[in-house]
Write a structure and sequence with these properties.
The protein is α+β, with helices and mostly antiparallel strands. The chain has helices at residues 3-27, 32-39, 43-51, 58-68, 72-76; strands at 91-92, 98-101, 110-116, 124-125, 129-136, 139-143, 146-150, 155-159, 164-168, 174-180, 188-189. The longest helix is centred in the N-terminal third of the chain and has 25 residues, at 3-27.
Length: 210
């Protein structure tokens, strides 16, 4: 590839960043003012970047990628418009757990495939609603003072403002599908897990738990 074609390709990539940023912001229902408050970037700079009047730099793209909950390369070189395929990129988390995003647009219900390694319970709360489906292994779900065990094919759904935790029910990993709403990733850790004795594990928990 000659220099001229490389320059043209670079221009095309840079020209696509602004519209992509505008689309992400609108899909999340954010105003320029709200995004400016989150990122510390001025409204005028955000507007110029989105309109293509200012070239985005790395110090602008990094806080924007964080604010929109996307990888940096999704801002710079997203899949071609109209391509419905999600490019799966497993994320290796702490203690051997694996997270595979199955959706690519923030601001909507997010879907993940997760392999959860054994870890101690730690109750959290956050805004939103979660839905869990067990693919393999046994899942332990602590919801307030209740304690459940879910097996493959079983489902749980619950309001995440109630203190909760989920993970393997034994020493083996558990594989699940995990859905949550737009604010479901903003977990707040409580000051330690509940010490209240939980009731016996439910072998057939209902599909919806109030």
């Amino acid at each position: 590839m000659n220099t001229g074609s490389k320059d043209a390709e670079l221009e095309q990539v840079l020209d696509g960043i602004g519209p992509r940023l505008r689309r992400l912001r609108r899909e999340r229902g954010l105003t320029l003012e709200a995004l400016a408050a989150t990122t510390g970037i001025s409204v005028s700079t955000l507007s110029r970047v989105e309109s293509g009047k200012r070239r985005p730099t790395l110090d602008l793209l990094i806080p924007l990628a964080r604010a929109h909950h996307v990888a940096l390369d999704q801002l710079v070189a997203a899949p071609a418009s109209g391509d419905p395929r999600v490019h799966l990129r497993p994320l290796h988390k702490e203690r051997g757990s694996i997270l595979v995003p199955l959706t690519q647009y923030p601001g909507r219900v997010q879907v993940f495939k997760q392999v959860l390694a054994p870890r101690p319970p730690e109750l959290v709360t956050h805004e939103g609603y979660e839905w869990l489906y067990v693919l393999a292994g046994r899942l332990r779900l602590i919801l307030g003072e209740r304690d459940f065990t879910l097996r493959p094919g079983e489902v749980a759904e619950f309001d995440t403002t109630e203190p909760h935790w989920f993970g393997p029910a034994d020493t083996s990993a558990v594989e699940i599908l995990h859905l949550f709403g737009p604010r479901g990733d903003q977990a707040v850790v409580r000051a330690g897990a509940s010490t209240t004795t939980t009731p016996p594990m439910a072998t057939n928990p209902p599909s919806a738990m109030p």
